[in-house]
């Protein structure tokens, strides 16, 4: 594979995450520059490009990928547009960082995986950024070293202050729990084999029709059980945490830290407001790792297999939500490229 000097990146999608990645590559990341930006909204994409030296605006991803200044692609468009963008990048054999989800369903994720396999080498890093968070990495290294023995269970919590308009029960799985799906598979190094969803009486703060909170249970191939409390209209801030229960002890991450205050007869501190603030460092580290590996001509991090497996668990999760049943996860055999 080619190795690069300064990597010319085309950022596809300039919504919340895309715009944040443009800023990140422009201001934080070394070894890369934003060579092109793409958005269907012509006025918006021009405004974004205007602020960056040598950056060309496009409304068509294929045209941006054909730009001679573009060496790699960061896909941050809505999930349903990912498949076409990924296949377009494969047609030019361009390295890709693809925001989660890889694609929104297992059938399209499998098509992407097969197309990458046809290239004969990995091209995609999937944006499961929690793998780059310092706390999650510390927990992963404790588990990998077997510090407290074999992990038996994980307890996850995932709370958002509120949800954007139009947020649905299915999005609670696809957008939110997809992170716990990925960290479960990564931390335990096991596939998830079945999903169950319990839906307590909803909070009065949830929009009409949203079953919030929910309790999601995973079983793994290794016999572990993992629970996730998902509460996306908790009202008080953003909290993501994970406690691993092992044979010889437990380890927990995700309690808010920062400045601890004593005043007026009370003690405490601030709760992080949202995921952009909570995972800012993880996003930075994720993009820097992608740029560094790409410049060396390598592909690292979460793969198309991880994106496909997450999509398969999400599909089972949505069926479990709808039926109240235990739903088994269907996966193809893991191809050699991803072992
Ligand atoms: C959002 O899309 C994210 O990726 C956040 O990390 C997650 O906490 C939130 O629930 C999702 O909607």
TrEMBL record:
Residues 8-128 form the Gfo/Idh/MocA-like oxidoreductase N-terminal domain. Keywords: NAD, Oxidoreductase. Pfam families: GFO_IDH_MocA (PF01408), GFO_IDH_MocA_C (PF02894). Its EC number is 1.1.1.18. It catalyses: myo-inositol + NAD(+) = scyllo-inosose + NADH + H(+). SUPFAM superfamilies: Glyceraldehyde-3-phosphate dehydrogenase-like, C-terminal domain, NAD(P)-binding Rossmann-fold domains. The keyword Cytoplasm does not apply. InterPro entries: Gfo-Idh-MocA_inositol_DH, Gfo/Idh/MocA-like_OxRdtase_C, Gfo/Idh/MocA-like_OxRdtase_N, MI/DCI_dehydrogenase, NAD(P)-bd_dom_sf. One of its GO terms (biological process) is inositol catabolic process. GO terms for molecular function: inositol 2-dehydrogenase (NAD+) activity; nucleotide binding. Signal peptide: none annotated. Residues 141-329 form the Gfo/Idh/MocA-like oxidoreductase C-terminal domain. Homotetramer. Involved in the oxidation of myo-inositol (MI) to 2-keto-myo-inositol (2KMI or 2-inosose). Belongs to the Gfo/Idh/MocA family. This is Inositol 2-dehydrogenase. The lineage of its organism: Bacteria, Bacillati, Actinomycetota, Actinomycetes, Kitasatosporales. The gene is iolG.
């Amino acid at each position: 594979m080619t190795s690069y000097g300064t990597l010319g990146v085309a950022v596809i999608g300039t919504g919340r995450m895309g715009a944040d990645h443009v800023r990140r590559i422009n201001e934080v990341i070394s070894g890369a520059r934003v060579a092109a930006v793409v958005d269907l909204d012509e006025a918006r994409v021009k405004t974004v490009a205007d602020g960056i030296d040598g950056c060309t605006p496009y409304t068509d991803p294929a045209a941006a990928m054909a730009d001679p200044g573009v060496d790699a692609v960061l896909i941050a468009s809505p999930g349903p547009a990912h498949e076409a963008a990924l296949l377009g990048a494969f047609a030019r054999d361009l390295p890709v960082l693809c925001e989660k989800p890889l694609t929104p369903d297992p059938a399209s994720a499998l098509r992407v995986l097969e197309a990458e396999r046809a290239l004969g080498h990995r091209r995609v890093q999937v944006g499961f950024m929690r793998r780059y968070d310092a706390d999650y990495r510390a927990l992963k290294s404790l588990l990998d070293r077997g510090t407290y023995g074999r992990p038996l269970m994980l307890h996850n919590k995932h709370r958002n202050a509120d949800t954007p308009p139009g947020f649905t029960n299915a999005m609670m799985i696809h957008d939110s729990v997809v992170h716990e799906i990925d960290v479960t598979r990564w931390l335990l190094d096991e596939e998830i084999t079945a999903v169950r969803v319990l839906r307590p009486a909803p909070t009065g703060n949830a929009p009409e029709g949203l079953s919030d909170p929910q309790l999601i249970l995973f079983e793994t191939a290794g016999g572990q059980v993992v629970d996730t409390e998902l509460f996306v209209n908790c009202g008080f801030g953003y909290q993501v945490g994970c406690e691993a229960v092992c044979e010889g002890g437990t380890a927990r991450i995700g309690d808010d830290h920062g400045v601890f205050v004593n005043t007026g007869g009370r003690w405490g501190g601030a709760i992080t407001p949202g995921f952009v603030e909570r995972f800012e460092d993880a996003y930075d580290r994720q993009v820097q790792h992608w740029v560094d590996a790409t410049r060396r001509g390598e592909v690292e991090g979460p793969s198309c297999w991880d994106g496909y497996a997450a999509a398969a668990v999400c599909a089972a999760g949505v069926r479990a939500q709808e039926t109240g049943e235990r739903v088994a996860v269907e996966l193809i055999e893991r191809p050699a490229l991803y072992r």
